[in-house]
Design brief:
The complex is a heterodimer of chains A (233) and B (180). Chain A has 233 residues and is α/β, with parallel strands linked by helices. Chain A is built from 11 helices and 6 strands. Chain A is elongated, with a radius of gyration of 27 Å. Classes of the chains: A alpha/beta (233), B mainly alpha (180). At the A-B interface, α2, α4, α6 and α11 of A face α1, α2, α3, α5 and α6 of B.
């Protein structure tokens, strides 16, 4: 019997993908020694696999065309704000302290961490819709007004960067006013978004109140790690 | 404790930095649109960051993020095709334009991407997760929320179709060569 017929395509794919056990691998390797057709089928599968990898070895720059108006997430995000409080503690705190403390002790550790800190709020905006920008600034002002010692940051990336761009923001005066009344507020622009826009030929100038961070995601991760309250608009 | 936090933070930064480009590559292989792939990767990371407490095994960080990317992709497709369910979505014929517009692509890369673009979505996802990310079949099953048997059958059909498509495309070109 021809060995090539004995092995299904699914099994040979699993062999090429290292998904078979030792015994099954041995069976195929043994059969290959005497069955040229089987060897040819496996060669073709390996070739396809390598070609797929090669095709995406280098992918296009993530640069976004300047005139592209993204709306795919608007339906999901327009519904409101996602609130997360110190989300990273559950995983990272547990992972690194489990050798020293029980789960209950980890929980109390994270509770203590938050209890000793004043309110620290990170508001994340990635939409250029005016109502979303408005919501971000409303939230920032609300927290600043409610808790005098609160630290508030508004971080903008993707289309949300328009809030902090001199030529596009409808809220330059409002941001200037907030900044002049509150020392503990920051408006942060995503450096990666800026680089992408500039790479596409756009002139990106920020309002004077804006500070720069390397990437929004890293900034969010860092703040969350530090126990900030994260609000996604 | 400060040392621990610092180390945790460094680990998190490294994982996030590494995962962003990987997510982008997967998303690009699925949609062949750089800007959309960037949005999908960004959204997956954003959603992931807000749900880190749901991740219990750091070793599964990438497959966990990939499953979120898959949900983002499905959400995107659903916004365009609300009349079909998940199973039908996976079998939808491709409407991707293919990468012909990217003039700088090498010919082989173009041919393979064209062939992948022609695969039904479910097959395209499986073959790219296995070949690009090196996920096991069990991990792909978890990421896409489908049985392992479905992973295997989709992969089998995907590679069979790729072989045919590439053979058609290169009828006048050199044939596929074996690769060590």
């Amino acid at each position: 019997m021809n060995d090539a017929k004995k092995f299904s395509d699914e099994r040979l794919n699993a062999f090429v993908d290292n998904q078979l056990g030792t015994q099954e691998c041995d069976e195929i390797l043994t059969a290959m020694a005497t069955d040229a057709e089987l060897g040819q089928r496996l060669c073709e599968l390996r070739s396809i696999k390598e070609l797929v990898r090669h095709a995406y070895g280098r992918v296009p720059d993530t640069r976004r065309p300047a005139n592209r108006h993204l709306s795919i997430w608007s339906s999901a995000l327009a519904a409101g704000v996602t609130l997360v409080i110190g989300v990273s503690i559950g995983w990272w705190g547990h992972q690194t302290t489990s050798a020293q403390a029980s789960t209950g002790e980890v929980a109390s550790w994270s509770e203590r961490l938050f209890a000793t800190e004043p309110a620290r709020i990170l508001i994340h905006l990635d939409s250029s819709q005016p109502e979303q920008m408005d919501a971000a600034l409303d939230l920032a002002e609300a927290y600043l007004a409610k808790a005098g010692s609160a630290r508030v940051e508004v971080i903008a990336n993707n289309r949300g960067l328009d809030l902090l761009r001199a030529r596009t923001t409808p809220y330059a005066a409002r941001i200037a006013s907030i900044k002049s009344h509150h020392e503990r507020v920051g408006f942060i622009a995503c450096g990666q978004t800026i680089a992408r826009l500039r790479g596409g030929g756009e002139d990106v100038a920020l309002i004077p109140q804006a500070a720069l961070t390397r990437t929004a995601i890293e900034h969010v991760a860092e703040r969350v790690q530090q126990g900030w309250t994260y609000l996604k608009i | 404790m400060s040392w621990l936090q610092s180390r945790e933070q460094r680990e998190l930064m490294e994982q996030i930095k590494a995962s962003r480009s990987r997510l982008y590559r997967i998303a690009f292989a699925w949609c062949h649109d750089a800007a959309l792939a960037d949005d999908l990767a960004q959204e997956a990371l954003t959603r992931g960051l807000s749900r880190l407490d749901q991740l219990r095994e750091s070793a599964k960080f990438m497959s966990w993020l990939s499953s979120i990317l898959n949900r983002c992709w499905i959400d995107y497709l659903r916004a365009r095709r609300s009349d079909v369910d998940d199973e039908q979505l996976s079998e939808l014929p491709s409407d991707l334009p293919g990468p012909d517009s990217h003039a700088e692509r090498q010919e082989t890369v173009n041919r393979v991407r064209n062939a992948i673009a022609a695969l039904p979505l479910g097959q395209r996802q499986v073959v790219t997760l296995v070949d690009l990310e090196g996920f096991s079949y069990a991990e792909v099953a978890e990421v896409l929320e489908i049985p392992i048997g479905t992973v295997m059958s989709r992969l089998c059909r995907a590679r069979g179709s790729l072989k045919e498509l590439l053979t058609e495309q290169v009828a006048a070109k050199p044939r596929l060569r074996s690769v060590k």
